[in-house]
From TrEMBL:
It is found in: Nucleus. Pfam families: Myb_DNA-binding (PF00249). Keywords: DNA-binding, Nucleus, Transcription, Transcription regulation. This is Uncharacterized protein. It comes from Arachis hypogaea (Peanut).
Length: 321
DNA sequence: AATGCATGCAACCGCGTCGCT
DNA sequence: GAGCGACGCGGTTGCATGCAT
């Protein structure tokens, strides 16, 4: 089923990378830039598939990768972002300079999900509720290896995840690609400022940035996030980035209300004028050429508030007006 | 010291999306 | 619009290491 694995070709190396391979890859990319991953291994003299090269570069060799442990600030930010966005690792990573989606994903799976489960259990105990433990949580990861295979089969029948989850959860509709370059990284790890230069970290992203400066057309990539409380959807909104917009000069975002096309907003949509949106100055953003940066700052304020889940709910409810 | 289990992380896999023809 | 290749993402696995017994 599906296409054949890209690394299945006979003669290609798999498994851990050797220092020599790292050097070859690094030197090649330094000389020629990223991209063209399929042909890259051949040109660089590597016996690897392009996919493997890309992964190695993105997750390990890139010069801007931050080494060392996740700081408490980053830890906190990951939790908050995850509560808002769900498993959008690349998006979360985009807000953590020097961290990769893989690293954050691993960190979540090994540290935070357990932490969250623990606190959840604590809450449940305090609330006197007895809710069945989530099956195969990462805290119990691979105690029984067959579990993962069972989970795999379970995922073939979609929907089981939602059924199990208590309380507020992030509900992810369908996968939507969001590139880190769309949500520019900050220069600090504190998630308090927006990189106004929208600095791209790869040659490909730079190329895209150049394209971005050309015009304001295009639907844009969209990241969706909304919370679900019990059976009632509490819409949290979608942060969309018009990838062909220049984020410095034009509104780099659109705001979409899923399933309600009459409320679809973006800066190219003149229909939005005259409509009233009661959301933290949303109207200002839309009508006065606000920026994604501003939206993010407001979003950050909400995130930084104490009891942020309550505040996030309020934030979400405000979007529904 | 030997053994088995748990953990963390790098790497792989499958699949969705995009862009080109 | 269909077909295809490239890219990127999220889930999963493999394996080295640490820890407990």
């Amino acid at each position: 089923m599906g296409r054949a694995p890209c690394c299945s070709k006979v003669g290609l190396h798999r498994g851990p990378w050797t220092p020599r391979e790292d050097t070859l890859l690094t030197k090649y990319i330094q000389a020629h830039g990223e991209g063209q991953w399929k042909s890259l291994p051949k040109k660089a003299g590597l016996l690897r598939c392009g996919k493997s090269c890309r992964l190695r570069w993105m997750n390990y060799l890139r010069p801007d990768i931050k080494r060392g442990n996740i700081t408490p600030e980053e830890d906190d930010l990951i939790i908050r972002m995850h509560s808002l966005l769900g498993n959008k690792w690349s998006l979360i990573a985009g807000r953590l300079p020097g961290r990769t989606d893989n690293e954050i994903k691993n960190y979540w799976n090994t540290h935070l999900s357990k932490k969250m489960n623990d606190s959840k259990e604590k809450d449940e105990k305090e609330g006197g509720e007895t809710v069945a433990k989530k099956k195969n949580s990462d805290g119990n990861k691979r105690k029984n290896k067959n579990n993962s295979k069972r989970e795999k089969n379970k995922k073939k029948n979609k929907g089981s995840k939602e059924e199990e989850s208590p309380k507020t959860q992030v509900y992810l509709p369908k996968p939507i690609r969001v590139k880190p370059s769309n949500l520019a990284r900050t220069n600090s790890s504190s998630f308090t400022s927006f990189d106004s230069n929208n600095s791209a970290t790869t040659s490909q992203e730079k190329e895209e940035d150049n394209n971005n400066n050309n015009n304001g057309e295009g639907e844009g990539d969209v990241t969706k996030a909304w919370t679900e409380e019990t059976n009632n959807l509490v819409f949290l909104g979608e942060i969309g980035v018009n990838k062909k917009n220049n984020m410095d000069e034009n509104d780099g975002f659109g705001f979409y209300f899923d399933g309600r096309e009459d409320l679809v907003l973006n800066n190219n949509n003149s229909d939005m004028e005259g409509q009233s949106y009661n959301y933290y100055g949303m109207e200002d953003h839309l009508n006065h050429h606000g920026t994604l940066e501003k939206l993010y700052e407001e979003y950050l304020q909400v995130l930084n508030m104490e009891d942020n889940m309550y505040e996030l709910d309020s934030f979400a409810e405000s979007l529904m007006v």
